[in-house]
Amino acid sequence: MKLKERFVTLVFNLATYILTAAVVNTLIKIIDVPIYIMLFAFVGSIVLIVVGVIIEGVVRWTKHFGTHFGIFA
């Protein structure tokens, strides 16, 4: 992935989290949802994204180095 594509992805992810935080704040104020439920959902989404990034890294590593070690040759 090119540096420009990574930067665009980073900006998009940051904008998504800012928007999510705004929605969570609005839900807490309007609907009066307990804050621990919102925080649990927010942290859960971050964990899922981290797991996805790790899986993507493993797939890239396997594609790059797999041919050197005879994997997927």
Top keywords for this entry?
single chain, 73 residues, mainly alpha, 2 helices, 0% strand, elongated
Give a short synopsis of this structure.
This protein is an all-alpha fold. Helix content is 82%, strand content 0%.
Order of helices and strands: HH
Query: Terminal Cα separation, in Å?
Result: 22 Å
The proportion of residues forming helix, as a percent range, comes to over 70%
Share in β-strands: under 5%
| Classification by helices and strands | mainly alpha
| Low-confidence runs | none
| Biggest beta sheet summary | none
Domain count: 1
Architecture blueprint of SSEs:
Blueprint: H1 3-30, H2 35-66
Task: Describe, in plain words, how this protein is organized in 3D.
The chain is mainly alpha-helical and 73 residues long. The chain has one domain (3-66). 82% of the residues lie in helices and 0% in strands. The protein has helices spanning 3-30, 35-66. The longest helix has 32 residues, at 35-66. The radius of gyration is 18 Å and the shape is elongated. The chain starts with a helix and ends in a 7-residue tail after the last helix. The mean pLDDT is 79.
